[in-house]
Amino acid sequence: MLLDIAASRNLLFVGGKGGVGKTSIASTIALARADAGARVLVVSTDPAHSLGHLWDMRIGDEITALGPRGVYGLEINPASATDEHLAQVEERLNRLVPDHMRSEVRKHLQLAREAPGTHEAAMLERIAKTVETYGPQFDLVVFDTAPSGHTARLMTLPETMATWTQGMLHRHDRSEKLTRALQGLDEEDPGLDVVAVGRGQSRAERDSEIRRVLLARQERFTKLRAALQDPDATAFIVVFQGERLPALETVELVGQLSRAGMQCAAGVINRRSPADAGDLLAKRRQQEAEHIKYVTDSLPGLPLVEVPLLGEDLQAPSTLREIAAYLA
After folding, report:
1. What's the structural domain count of the chain?
2. What is the pLDDT of residues 177-196, one digit of tens each?
3. Is 247 contained in some domain?
């Protein structure tokens, strides 16, 4: 079932509580699609990257072939994404402000580095750029996301950021009107200096640059939002285990995604205890059933598949192909 869902999509997001096996499920789907002839990129957005550990290789922030033909990996480093994001903001601002204000710009951005939302905005920029850049190059891009709360925040940010950018454009338009009014005064009073700005740009050139940046940002977030909300192009898979906290977070995450206009296509019950391997595991399986029932009662329309608890460590690609049989 999950492999059919992946086969008909361009983007796949795999999310859930930390430690439930998102990376193994994301990699399994990617490997299965590559075995079927597709070219697939797995992108980890989790600060605690385990993608490289699973594949037993160093991946990092560059596209890396993971071994089997057609499977590639990329680990987005949140700190690097934030540095890149703020460096771009600083470079743009330095083109738009007078020289004497550049030290204030740098000071403000240094403070903004730890401000709430900065890391999420930077990660959203990288996700959007990844979709724009690599989406056309791969048959499928699979995002191995951070734990539930972070993921839900990222998924709702495109709407927020698009709205914020639209507000900035509206304020910029009002500012342009004021500038034109001041330019009219300038013709009457040469003492008014409303034209000269930083780096020799005229005010009209600066305003044009600001508008270009804001429009490009709005277009990027609008496209990402449209892609995330298109069930024919994008699917979200939630992974959980038969435990109380993962079950609670799963229901909450699916609700948050729904409110953001995204549908959860399916769920994976990972590491399901066997019923015939002794009293301890049989008892645990019975307890798992209670938490699974909570999820099915709360999300009656969500298709679910079960992946059993395996008796060996996960190792790509061999163990992943074993898991793939349960996702078909």
Report:
1. 1
2. 655 555 555 555 444 444 44
3. yes
